[in-house]
Design a protein that fits this description.
- The protein contains no helices and 42 strands.
- By secondary structure, the chain is mostly beta strands.
- It has a 9-stranded antiparallel β-sheet with strand order 4-3-2-1-9-8-7-6-5, with no helix packed on it. Strands 35, 36, 37, 38 and 39 form a 5-stranded antiparallel β-sheet that branches. A 4-stranded antiparallel β-sheet has the order 10-42-41-40, with no helix packed on it.
């Protein structure tokens, strides 16, 4: 082997992505291999020194052969359970790293409202009011037209959850483990329920011991039953009117997934890697599906299928009745923190390190488009007939340049319509939008890690 660069495709089942091997001398003057995969834009990574075996070469986790006649290099990752392989040909050099997304905004909010803590939780709305929680422990009810405060309710602990607006009430889960049912008119509690999740300690990307526990379960209601997951690993079913427990279902990890109810089944994910389907009336397990890694996102139902992403970097579509896989899509190592939204037969979902918002045919799994947003699109997209809205998480202390912002893109093409960006500054570690947006009355609402609630005309 001699120094040089090879480029081509990394192959997994029927998917491919651009992939490169660069052979050059390392600091110890050994010829070594470095990998580069533009879809996950980390700098090239060292694999190891190249060794000649009897019929092939090895370098760390890869092995390969070179056909000198065809100038073709083929190889694989022998220890990969996925059976990843690659086919490469000589190229002049590695591609240039992509340019960071511009921090120039092309839209401005109609109004903002300042809370006393970063906003990680999603926004919800009825006809006139937007509801959103903050790390200051308060649920806020704001006028959609002006952003003026209508009422607020303090839970006593940080809020990462999405409010559920149902009939005349709002349901909100706090990090003290309590689910509150509040009057929609004035925020006065009707009942509260202890989910036993208060002892779980959340870790965030800017903590001294960092983690990525930014999601939280939230309430879902069907046929008079409130369903909510807990950090203690249980899914609870609660009587909507009395607040009394009806049943609970135990998993082996915290539940940050928001339940989805369809076909008289409750679907939800767990840190224990499984997507669960339980009987909505009795809590009896119907089936479970192992995604291979923890689930922090929430399932979405459409046309007989339940769709969910995992930190295995896989997006799965399963038959809702049986749990049998209908299709899957691999995100090349990028966690899927985002939950999906379905509109007119299309699934819209973000991920993480690949920084891509994607649109799929929900029935077949065909990738229709992807839009590079330049940051981690963890939010659940909000979708209209013409536009998809998504926020991005910005992280200044990470191996990939992540920019925080909020984007509107064309629903059919993924082309950008407008953006609202936060400046990357030396004194801020994390910034942007993790709060999923909500659409109401021609406006889109969301919260920022700067503690502000934003209202935009869409």
């Amino acid at each position: 082997m001699t120094p040089g660069t090879w480029g081509g495709e990394l192959i997994y089942q029927n998917q491919t992505t651009e992939f490169y091997l660069d052979f050059r001398y390392d600091d110890d003057n050994h010829l070594a291999a470095f990998t580069y995969m533009p879809v996950i834009p980390f700098p090239e990574r060292p694999v190891g020194a190249i060794n000649r075996e009897s019929s092939h070469f090895t370098a760390g986790s890869i092995q390969f052969t070179v056909d000198s006649d065809s100038q073709r290099l083929t190889g694989s990752f022998p220890n990969s359970a996925r059976g990843l392989r690659f086919e490469l040909f000589p190229v002049s050099k590695l591609p240039e790293a992509k340019e960071p997304v511009s921090s120039q905004s092309t839209a401005a909010p109609d109004w903002t409202f300042q809370t006393d803590g970063a906003i990680w939780g999603d926004a919800s709305a009825d006809d006139e009011v937007v509801y959103i929680g903050s790390r200051d422990g308060t649920l806020y009810a704001l006028s959609q037209s002006s952003g003026d405060l209508k009422w607020k309710f303090h839970t006593g602990a940080e809020i990462f959850s999405r409010p559920l607006v149902h009939e005349n009430h709002v349901y909100i889960l706090s990090d003290n483990g309590t689910l509150y049912k509040l009057s929609k008119e004035n925020g006065i509690p009707t009942w509260k329920f202890d989910t036993c999740g208060q002892e779980w300690q959340r870790k965030l990307p800017n903590d001294e011991s960092p983690g990525y526990d930014s999601m939280a379960s939230a309430a879902a209601i069907s046929n008079g039953i409130v369903y909510v997951g807990s950090a203690d690993g249980h899914l609870f079913a609660i009587d909507e009117y009395s607040g009394d427990e009806m049943w609970r279902f135990k998993t082996e990890g915290p539940i940050q997934s928001i339940p989805a109810v369809a076909e008289e089944i409750v679907f939800f994910g767990s840190y224990d890697h499984h997507l669960y389907a339980v009987d909505a009336e009795t809590g009896t397990l119907k089936w479970k599906f192992n995604t291979g890694q923890m689930i922090v996102s929430s399932p979405v139902y459409g046309n007989g299928k339940i769709m969910i992403g995992s930190r295995s970097a896989d997006l799965f579509a399963l038959d809702a009745s049986t749990g049998k896989e209908a299709w899957s899509y691999y995100h090349w190592g990028s966690w899927i923190e985002s939950s999906g939204s379905i509109n007119d037969g299309r699934l819209f979902i973000g991920s993480s390190d690949d920084q891509l918002l994607k649109s799929f045919d929900a029935d077949t799994g065909e990738l229709l488009w992807s839009a590079d947003l330049g940051g981690s699109p963890w939010t659940t997209p909000a979708v209209t007939e013409s536009t998809v809205y998504s926020g991005t998480f910005g992280n200044a202390n990470y191996g990939i340049d992540h920019r925080g912002g909020f984007f509107a893109v064309d629903r059919l093409t993924g082309d950008e319509k407008w953006r609202f960006m936060w400046e990357k500054t030396e004194d801020i570690d994390i910034y942007g939008v993790v709060s999923s947006p909500v659409i109401s009355n021609g406006k889109v609402f969301f919260g920022g890690l700067d503690g502000k609630v934003y209202g935009f005309t869409h």
